Amino acid sequence: MKYINLVKLCVGAAQIEDLIAWQSSRAWPEGQPMHVTRMWPKREDELLAGGSLYWVFKGQILARQKVISLQEVIGADGIRRCAISLDLNIIRTQATARRAFQGWRYLTQEDSPPDLSRTRPAEVPLPSDLARALADIGLI
Questions:
Q1: Helix/strand/coil for 93
Q2: Which are the contacts of 19, defined by CB distance < 8 A and separation ≥ 6?
Q3: Which of 34, 63, 111, 133 has the fewest Cβ atoms within 10 Å of its own Cβ atom?
Q4: Is 131:125 a contact under the CB 8 Å cutoff?
Q5: How would DSSP label each residue in 48-80?
Q6: Closest by alpha carbon to 63, among 23, 103, 3, 30?
Q7: Which pLDDT tens digit goes with each residue over 22-46?
Q8: pLDDT digits (tens, 9 = 90+) for 87-108
Q9: H-run or E-run covering 94
Q10: Backbone angles phi, psi at 129, to 5 degrees
Q11: Ramachandran quadrant class, 98 (left: phi over 0; alpha: psi -120 to 50; beta: rest)
């Protein structure tokens, strides 16, 4: 089945453990962690057909969480926003260089990094400048 993913900078988190700690420290509505964003994904059906939110830490995609649902939330300022409900399980992925950007971007299945196996629960990421240089010449 075809689906689309999202990719987002994990602002304020230097490593996956920071994201895990932050999500664990909150009481989430319905028990699911959420990421609230201003824009509603136009490709909602494709995203909900099996997509994930891939997290970028210091210039590298290192983890993902399956998208459970999208919910409308209205901020204190009266602006409509999209709350992306995520699975509790954070899945580590192969380190993949990603340039900085604002907001989120779509990520196709074909361009999504593979998950790390359970027997290899972590991967030491390349230094950001090296990963960026390798990505620029198409090696990663």
A1: strand
A2: 10, 13, 55, 57, 63, 90
A3: 111
A4: yes
A5: HTT-EEEEEETTEEEEEEEEEEEEEEE-TTS-E
A6: 23
A7: 999 888 887 899 999 999 999 999 9
A8: 999 999 999 988 888 889 999 9
A9: strand 91-97
A10: -65, -35
A11: beta
